[in-house]
Amino acid sequence: MSKHSDSQAENPLYAITGITGKVGGAVGRALLAAGKRVRAVVRDRDKGREWAERGCEVALADLADGAALGAAFQGSSAVFVLPPPVFDPEPGYPEAKRVIESVVAALSRSRPERVLCLSTIGADAVHDNLLSQRILLELALRRLDLPLTLLRPAWFLDNAAWDVPAARETGQLPSFLNVAQAFPMVASVDVGRVAAELLGEAWSGTRVVELEGPSRVSPNDLATAFSSALGKPVRAVPVARAAWEALFRSQGMKHPEPRMRMLDGFNERWIEFQDGGSSALKGTTTAAAVISALVSGA
């Protein structure tokens, strides 16, 4: 018999990490809108107040603290794991490994009925790159004897938030991606919505779910969307590969190689969905809608 009570089976509790961010917040809001019980797992009590006011339970835990995290997951029917991003990792990814060890210990202790992990496109890439951190996480979670969904979203359209000042002030969109090449991209709101839907499903074993937007998007397409949103011409401008390392180091990065290799992977198409995206779920939010919201500050 399951160790979870009948009341939990009838009214399951969802433990959500990363709920103060865009994706985790979208997951939490979708579950609450559906009348579900939600436990917001946060590091900062002040950031948890908003979610308490929305009707969530609040648990304090850092993803690198296995004991606290296990207590936060205790009694949950389903857990949403959203690891913190590390954009400038030390060699060997020690930061990711600490979080992975903690998450595995917490899940082993709490034994929820099912787990959904936000992974990424490229979690099966053959070459080492920034996304290899998620490969390590997937491998560790697969060894747990728990129903597991690995949600692999495409490049986040919301990353274009970093481009708003340049587009507005200079009419240019500096791009490390090939400007005419269409890439799998997706809006964070679609990722959150799909994650909430998947959490409510019942499954056994491990399943991989890939997710991208309604159509593929090039940096030129993003520039067109910025032009429309700003009411002025904006064009995508390629940043030469030879300039990347010096540029990234000037921005404070100590170890830019993983990021550079990730960008290579997208440009060279060895970071891609298993069948070119044919079987991937498709979100509904367009690039134009995301850019418009970013420009308006929504």
Question: What does this protein structure show overall?
Answer:
By secondary structure, the protein is α/β, with parallel strands linked by helices. It has a domain at 6-157 and 185-212: Rossmann fold, CATH 3.40.50.720. It has 12 helices and 12 strands. The protein has helices at 6-10, 22-33, 45-53, 66-73, 94-110, 132-142, 164-170, 188-199, 219-230, 244-250, 257-268, 287-296, and strands at residues 13-17, 37-42, 57-60, 78-81, 114-118, 148-153, 155-156, 172-175, 185-186, 206-212, 235-238, 281-282. The strands form 3 sheets. The protein has an 8-stranded parallel beta sheet with strand order 3-2-1-4-5-6-10-12, with helices on both faces. Strand 2 (37-42), helix 3 and strand 3 (57-60) form a beta-alpha-beta unit. It is globular, with a radius of gyration of 20 Å. It starts with 5 loop residues before the first helix and ends with a helix. Residues 1-7 have low confidence and may be disordered.
